[in-house]
Amino acid sequence: QVHLVESGGGLVQPGGSLRLSCAASGFTFSTYPMSWYRQVPGKERELVAGISSTGESTNYRESMKGRFTISRDNAKNTVYLQMNSLKPEDTAVYYCKLVRWGISYWGQGTQVTVSS
User: Fold this and answer.
1) 89 exposed, middle or buried (CB, 10 Å; 0-12, 13-18, 19+)?
2) Fewest Cβ atoms nearer than 10 Å: which of 26, 34, 42, 107?
3) What is the pLDDT along the chain (116 residues), one digit of tens a residue?
4) Could you tell me the strand order of the sheet in which 3-7 lies?
5) What's the burial of 91, exposed, middle or buried (CB within 10 Å: 0-12/13-18/19+)?
6) Rounded to whole angstroms, how far apart are CA atoms 103 and 100?
7) Is 56 helix (H, G, I), strand (E, B) or coil?
C-alpha cells in the first residue's frame, strides 16, 4: 500500500527557509519520479517541482527557480523540497505526489505559512 507522509512545514518569516520532507513506503521508491505540488484554498493544486527516479533530472515551476530545490535520497525513500527566500505568496499546503500505473497518490500535505 502506497503511503506518503509530508513533514517540515510551519510558520516562517518572509525571506526565511524551510525544508520539507516526504517519506514514502509501499512501493519501489527508487524507480519512480516524484513531485511536489501546492494548493491555496479556492485554487487548483499546482506543480512546484519534479525529480526523476535517480535524481539526475529536475524541473521547477518558473516562479520557484533559484529559490526551491528538490532532491531525493533513495536509500531513505524520501524526497525533499528546500525552500529559500520564501515569500508570503508561497503560503500553501504542500503535497508530494507519486504517479504509478496511471494512478496518482498524494500525501496528507504540510502547511507552509510565510508571514511576519
Assistant:
1) exposed
2) 42
3) 999 999 999 999 999 999 999 999 999 999 999 999 999 989 999 999 999 999 999 999 998 889 999 999 999 999 999 999 999 999 999 999 999 999 999 999 999 999 99
4) 3-7, 18-25, 78-83, 68-73
5) middle
6) 5
7) coil
